Amino acid sequence: MIRVLLAEDQSLVLGALSALLSLEGDLEVVGTATDGEAALGLARDLNPDVLVTDIEMPRLSGLDLAGRVREELPGVRVVIVTTFARGGYLRRALDAGARGYLLKDAPASELAEAIRRVHAGGRAIAPALAEEAWGERDPLTDRERQVLREAESGASTAAIAARLGLSEGTVRNYLSEAISKVGAGNRAEAARKAREKGWL
């Protein structure tokens, strides 16, 4: 049996995934979580074979969760299941250690097969995204991404500096670099463009 842990913040989707995967004779859903922190705790306790997670979740995103699992539980393989059909997200997921990346509109049989493939040591990537992911690289550093995310919410330079423990000048430098790298005219446009590419 392949032991599977599911992490998804929408209860209806979580229940449907659990029920569908439980119909597979070789898959056992050993736990479910509705936020990233809870999923990490369950992964530590249950040591599943495969963790299936969404990207956007409370407390710890699926990408951050994948990175933490790679560091702490290298034997647990991660499959991302998301609505984000963008190459930038796929690249970031792979960089975080995910072995699979599927879209939520894929048939349940495709998810089950992806879990089997990843468990066996392979990769499972949505075909529509695979080619796009190896095109344009994410130009942002982690710190530029962090500052741009804060700016996206409308925070002032001073507020961003206070929140991140940086000087206002440093924040302005990171924003300037990010704006330049994504080819935008201002911070709002930079955040929008980066979000569209899957870089935020």
TrEMBL record:
<feature type="modified residue" description="4-aspartylphosphate">
    <location>
        <position position="54"/>
    </location>
</feature>
<dbReference type="InterPro" id="IPR039420">
    <property type="entry name" value="WalR-like"/>
</dbReference>
<dbReference type="InterPro" id="IPR036388">
    <property type="entry name" value="WH-like_DNA-bd_sf"/>
</dbReference>
<keyword id="KW-0597">Phosphoprotein</keyword>
<dbReference type="Pfam" id="PF00072">
    <property type="entry name" value="Response_reg"/>
</dbReference>
<dbReference type="InterPro" id="IPR016032">
    <property type="entry name" value="Sig_transdc_resp-reg_C-effctor"/>
</dbReference>
<dbReference type="GO" id="GO:0003677">
    <property type="term" value="F:DNA binding"/>
</dbReference>
<feature type="domain" description="HTH luxR-type">
    <location>
        <begin position="133"/>
        <end position="198"/>
    </location>
</feature>
<dbReference type="InterPro" id="IPR001789">
    <property type="entry name" value="Sig_transdc_resp-reg_receiver"/>
</dbReference>
<dbReference type="Pfam" id="PF00196">
    <property type="entry name" value="GerE"/>
</dbReference>
<keyword id="KW-0238">DNA-binding</keyword>
<feature type="domain" description="Response regulatory">
    <location>
        <begin position="3"/>
        <end position="119"/>
    </location>
</feature>
<dbReference type="InterPro" id="IPR011006">
    <property type="entry name" value="CheY-like_superfamily"/>
</dbReference>
<dbReference type="InterPro" id="IPR000792">
    <property type="entry name" value="Tscrpt_reg_LuxR_C"/>
</dbReference>
<protein>
    <submittedName>
        <fullName>DNA-binding response regulator</fullName>
    </submittedName>
</protein>
